[in-house]
Amino acid sequence: MTVELRNPQTLGAVASSDPVLPERWCNLLTRLPEPLPPVLDPPGAETSPIALMRRIRLRELLTQDESTKPWIDIPGEILERYEEMGRPTPLTRARRLETYLGTSARIFLKREDLLPTGSFKLNSAIAQCYFARQEGAEKLVSETGAGQWGQALAYACRLYDLGSVVFWASVSEQQKPGRSALTRMLGATVYPSPSAETDVGRQLLADGQAPLGSLGSAIGEAICYARDHAEFRYVSGSNLPHVLLHQTVIGLETRRQLEILGARPDVLIACVGGGSNLGGFMGPFLEDKAARGDELRLVAAEAASAPRLTRGELRYDHSDPVGITPLTRSYTLGRDYPLPPTHVGGLRQHNGSAVIGVLRKHGLLEARAFEEREIFEVGSLIVRLEGLLPAPESCHALAAAIAIARENPREKRNIVVCISGNGWLDLEGYREHLPS
Amino acid sequence: MTVELRNPQTLGAVASSDPVLPERWCNLLTRLPEPLPPVLDPPGAETSPIALMRRIRLRELLTQDESTKPWIDIPGEILERYEEMGRPTPLTRARRLETYLGTSARIFLKREDLLPTGSFKLNSAIAQCYFARQEGAEKLVSETGAGQWGQALAYACRLYDLGSVVFWASVSEQQKPGRSALTRMLGATVYPSPSAETDVGRQLLADGQAPLGSLGSAIGEAICYARDHAEFRYVSGSNLPHVLLHQTVIGLETRRQLEILGARPDVLIACVGGGSNLGGFMGPFLEDKAARGDELRLVAAEAASAPRLTRGELRYDHSDPVGITPLTRSYTLGRDYPLPPTHVGGLRQHNGSAVIGVLRKHGLLEARAFEEREIFEVGSLIVRLEGLLPAPESCHALAAAIAIARENPREKRNIVVCISGNGWLDLEGYREHLPS
Q1: Residue B114 maps to which CATH number?
Q2: Does the beta carbon of B251 lie under 8 angstroms from any beta carbon of chain A?
Q3: Whole-model pTM?
């Protein structure tokens, strides 16, 4: 879809010589306080997960995962897609929330929920499908937790005429019949995970392990599927450096928008699952953080039901329950951790990105965990105040913003929250948790 | 919510001295080929529905319904709200649909689906709530069919701190649990109609008449509720001249956007329920129609299950099944017409706007009717091609566009379709009709 016309007047226009949309992604790997710990094969393993990943992944993305360039040019065609889909996304002010809280802080919302599939995931899905097409791939397989990535991937695959197969954490797929239907309508083949489609899924089913599935089980199945279907490339929507790289478009826009407004950020907040929303939002501010120290707070909001950063430990672990993935060093609860069937599928995993692990280890990243009931109350408050219905994952970031604003109500600060997605297809969760 | 910043560069910006957002609404009443037939009281009625409506409606809206001014200034505060909510909405090009159809026509989409509540209804809801607040009203009651109006009204009432009660055609409310939940979360009290809350509802329940409800039953109940609750004003989201007036913001923007693109419209298409989407979209083109005759086609797309324009007759009828409303002269199927429980709640009524009646009577408006299965197939095609999931109502307009494009595939024309709303909260209908 091409946007033919939109009047800049209406939305607080910036001079046209001053574009907000960046032309380069920001490589977090060159901005970390220590080199990213490498992925490892398990000691004594018969087969090498690393070799498998090299075989089934797209070459360009493997290159990006190890790039030492501080900036990576965004291909022109991807920039066009970004523009067509509504980038840069607005930075809005939550004035009614500020009034409600009685805070002297200004609360800004970076509105990734306004993208066509309702979440930030499209930023990387478009890029990955572009590279897939460049490399001659015809079909992609991936995993999804809450479904935001699966839906975005299905949409991007349509734009690039690619086939798609999505393994979807079973409990989340069942909780979100609308999102699942839409993803299928977009042309994806959807398998609830664990499924009988793969060795990994069959093993999980036979063991009675993880019958609800998780992002981890879906990751394991998607990789296994690509291993056994040569015509498929495996892609993923979070965790990995190249995904965080693509998502830095969020932070770069935000940083520029704040500059233009003359608003220096004091607190940046994002929810954290695999870490691509947080990494993409905060990555372009890492140099500011290094310069400003405690004056700039970076806050990760996670689910109390999957408390990796607040209760996990920093060590090597697989990202799937069976062990088909390489070992990644990040904060983990252990791959057998019993994740309850919450409506927070996007944060429902036992480990996360190695990049987030490094940030947390060095004290650059605060972390706060929120209970499921609490975050649906926050979402319900936000929709009443601001008209915006946040995805359950995004509610965590908003919950953190509210908590922080309340701690020092008189302090004049700029609190900037990334709204990772909208909750229109997550209403089942809201309905379950709120009095009717 | 205030949009603080959005970069005009990204969306095909127009020079800033050339705003698309109009500052005046266009009054259709002064552009009709004959005066609007007045509403009437039923002969020999004990009480006067007209007097009742005068008592329970907002004064400014009554004035607008009879205004002879060709243009009516949009109050500055409403303009601000329009801007905040993303007006002007984009005019996009459906290039992949054009390619799929192999048509030489250009197909433009006016994207009302991108407004915060997902439909065009907010254009009038904002205006009505503004006038309600001006007149010191504190609570509003209304009806809704598919729920787009109820949701928009609930949202606008939040912005103006008004209470809201919504009577919602029972079958539609049940079909759309997500939309219903969201409307309640926005603060509205929702009653499925027919309900036990009002005399009208109790009468319908006792008679076993219209157990599924319809827009008509909900209209009757909302009016009855306002009659019996003095603290409430009654407002409505379609049919009436003032609603069409507010919605002309759609057509005025579209006309300006097409002018800037240098694209003269050949066919304008909208779905038609009560008529505010069609009237608002096409009203500003009525003078062009008068000048250009058959060179400019105005096409109404209706539901085959409620075929007012294609099978109804032009005569006076009540807009509710009990007869609490004044008599309106429009195309009607009769107020006892058994409307089947389709997933097309926004078009599911037995009559419509008197304005549409005049346009149709004078041959200015073509009409086409589409079956439910057909329109869900169209929606499914559109989401695969364009990423946009249209509301079932909007699918009718798209179905008409596709049919017209196919009739003369080689003809170079500009076909402009109004997308009245998105279908994210209508996925139950899609799921019921499409193979999984």
Answers
A1: 3.40.50.1100
A2: no
A3: 0.91
